[in-house]
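Hi support team,

I submitted a single chain yesterday and got back a structure, but I'm not sure I'm reading the token output correctly. Could someone confirm the output below corresponds to the sequence I sent? I've pasted both exactly as they appear in my results page.

Thanks,
R.
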Amino acid sequence: MARILSHAAFALLFWATSPVTAFQSTFNRLPPSNLKGRISEGVRGVTTKSRHSSLYMQSSPAQKGTIQVLMSDTGGGHRASANALRDAFDVLYPGQIQVDIVDIYTDYGPFWPYNEYVELYKIMAKYSFLWKIFYEFGSTPFGLILNDLLLEAFCFDPFKECLSRPVGDTGKRADMIISVHPLCQELPLKILCDLDSNGNSRSEGRTTPFATVVTDLGGAHPTWFNKGADKCFVPSDALRQCAKDREVSDSQIIQYGLPIRKGFWGGDYGNNKAPDSVDPVESNNAGMKEEMRMKLGMADVPTVLVVGGGDGMGGITAIATALGNRLDTDGLKDKKQYQMVVVCGSNKEAVEELSSLDWGKGVNVLVNGFVNNMDEWMRASDAIVTKAGPGTIAEASICGLPCMLSSFLPGQEEGNVPFVEDAGFGRYSGNPDVISTCVSSWLESPEMMKEMQEAALKAARPTATIDIAKDLA
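Hi R., thanks for writing in. Yes, this is the structure output for that exact sequence:
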């Protein structure tokens, strides 16, 4: 009990130091049409005639375009999205933009709890009731005001050091700031006002473009949405409405989809090429399954992929055990074989336990830890069991995978359940027996599988990362 109370105290401080958006100062926002123009000027203060002769065609490091991406490793999706955007800039404009990805809380948090947000997140993800309590507290007007006051009081100067640092070998600070985390809007915007006005104001005078790329899917915390940002990229209709509810104007909101890893982009994009056009659905799915199974050493039989995220959370051992046993029973009954691939992430205990089990003859089981080729494993599978993480759902839809959602963090991931269910390509249950029964029924019904696969592909947005990068640059 003492340990739980201690965790609760940590979580309270975590949310008490989050940024606020509800009662922000009014920023002198750049006109929406100036966002591209500002970054295309390249070196701050230099006026040029041509976008391509200024930012993208300079050979000197000091004249390259520079972008700083702000995030925190509270869950794997934020860094994955940041890396995806960096890769998109590299593919579209090779050698012309330098991107600085920074975990601003871990690297520049002045003291505990700011510099321990990642560990605090893991605690609250483990005890989800704590996450729910303090997520909801952080969404209240009082919580938002308190967040803003404390964060500005303690983190303004160290975060200013972060935003002032030179990007790569250019010797200059970023021409543009992109946030891919809900706790990186309010204070960075104030700091940019301070920097661009030479310390005269924290509420006006900003000239450095600032864009938010929301990396949640069906629901999001209010701190994502700040009307001081020049652009707010959202992945869904639900989050477009969330942004509008926070007084972000239609002219600021852009909807493409969720930034996802390069292996899921489709066509030649994943091969470091930028073609003029591509059929992303065809290129991602046609003829891939048999090829990928052969490459990965898998049997060419109906396959279910079970994943627990990069941190291995979500009760993956119990789910995989129940599903593996059910597939074995079905295989023996139907006189055929099924296959289950389990990706445990960093959960070494799950890898050891699942690898030690004696699986029946009706199911072939492959157990992996952390993998860097999730796109290949997904394309080799027929369905997926996963926690309701937005990135995994977006990637699974691109591969046409029906999704069995097994858990979610209260708050931002909760909205991902209706996102999948209403779109017709999945269901939710936290019960391993229900999960195994549901997935079994899918595999036994080719008609149902086809309908869900088509629904998943309809929801897919494989070009979202490229679209966002093009819009920004």
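A quick pointer for reading it: The chain has 20 helices and twelve strands. Let us know if anything else looks off.

Best,
Support desk
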